[in-house]
């Protein structure tokens, strides 16, 4: 997430914000400062209205420096989305990996991602309202992430199926459905500005999971012969 030492209202006119963190790491280089500034500007002004000049001024660099790191404004937006999705993936994996009840770990993963979006409302806004025309590229990046982690996902969802969950869906279908639930909750939260995203996402997840549950006693039970 992009955080600053002071809010925009506390800054003097024309003063650049002092970005401190980007996705959990300190901002120590120009490229990361540009990403922070671009996310701010895209969220505040809209992607189409935002100018590279404004991003450069906010980041405290020249326009040429931005093009040194990013081929275009569109490329800059896609890097913001890609790095943020990777970070959310890492948050989820950090909660899923390990021992313990797999359903509890899944819920913790959902909470961590929703909490990230709540704390980084600007990215949520950019993803939902400004990145729509690039959704094809974003979806391809998401699918690539899914494939990279498929061996682990198969093992994790296998443990859930042993408890009767997600029996009717493949691992890919289960992941896509859960992502759709998270996006839907985020979409409503961004547009209305109401409620607690973390609690909404977990509530939707619980409804989804319970709705797809099969009684474990019926799993692998031999079917009666038909006459």
Describe the structure.
The protein has 227 residues and is mainly α. The chain folds into two domains: 67 residues, Arc Repressor Mutant, subunit A; 144 residues, Tetracycline Repressor, domain 2, CATH 1.10.357.10. It is 65% helix and 4% strand. It is built from ten helices and three strands; from the N terminus they run βββαααααααααα. Strands 1-2-3 form a three-stranded antiparallel beta sheet, with helices on one face. α1 packs across α2. The termini are far apart.
Set out the fold topology.
Elements (H helix, E strand, L loop, with lengths): L2 E2 L14 E4 L2 E2 L3 H16 L6 H8 L3 H7 L3 H24 L5 H18 L1 H10 L4 H14 L1 H13 L8 H22 L4 H15 L16
Antiparallel strand pairs: 1-2, 2-3
Write a concise synopsis of the structure shown.
The protein has 227 residues and is mainly α. It folds into two domains: 3-69, Homeodomain-like (Arc Repressor Mutant, subunit A), CATH 1.10.10; 73-216, Tetracycline Repressor, domain 2. The chain has helices spanning 30-45, 52-59, 63-69, 73-96, 102-119, 121-130, 135-148, 150-162, 171-192, 197-211; strands at 3-4, 19-22, 25-26.
Q: CATH class of the largest domain, please?
A: Mainly Alpha
How big is the Rg?
21 Å
Structural class, please?
mainly alpha
Strand order of the largest sheet: 1-2-3
> Helix tally?
10
CATH homologous superfamily identity of the largest domain: Tetracycline Repressor, domain 2
Average pLDDT score = 85
Outline: elongated
The assigned CATH architecture of the largest domain is Orthogonal Bundle
Cα(first) to Cα(last) distance is 62 Å
Beta strands, count: 3
Q: How many domain regions?
A: 2
Report on the biggest sheet.
3 strands, antiparallel
The residue ranges in which pLDDT falls below 50 over 5 or more consecutive positions are: 4-14, 219-227
């Amino acid at each position: 997430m992009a955080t600053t030492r002071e809010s925009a209202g506390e800054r003097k006119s024309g003063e650049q914000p002092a970005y401190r963190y980007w996705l959990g790491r300190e901002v120590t280089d120009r490229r990361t400062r540009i990403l922070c500034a671009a996310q701010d500007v895209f969220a505040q002004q809209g992607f189409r209205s935002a100018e590279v000049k404004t991003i450069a001024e906010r980041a405290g660099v020249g326009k040429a420096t931005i093009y040194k790191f990013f081929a275009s404004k569109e490329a800059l937006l896609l890097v913001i989305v890609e790095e943020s999705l990777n970070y959310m993936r890492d948050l989820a994996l950090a909660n899923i990996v390990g021992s313990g009840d797999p359903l509890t770990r899944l819920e913790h993963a959902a909470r961590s991602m929703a909490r990230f979006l709540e704390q980084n409302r600007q990215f949520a806004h950019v993803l939902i309202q400004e990145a729509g025309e690039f959704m094809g590229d974003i979806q391809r990046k998401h699918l690539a992430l899914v494939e990279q982690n498929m061996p682990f996902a198969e093992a994790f969802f296998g443990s859930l199926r042993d408890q009767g969950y997600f029996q009717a869906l493949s691992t890919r279908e289960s992941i896509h459905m859960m992502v759709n639930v998270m996006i839907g909750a985020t979409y409503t939260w961004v547009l209305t500005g109401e409620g607690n995203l973390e609690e909404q996402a977990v509530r939707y997840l619980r409804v989804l999971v319970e709705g797809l549950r099969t009684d474990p006693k019926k799993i692998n039970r031999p079917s009666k012969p038909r006459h």
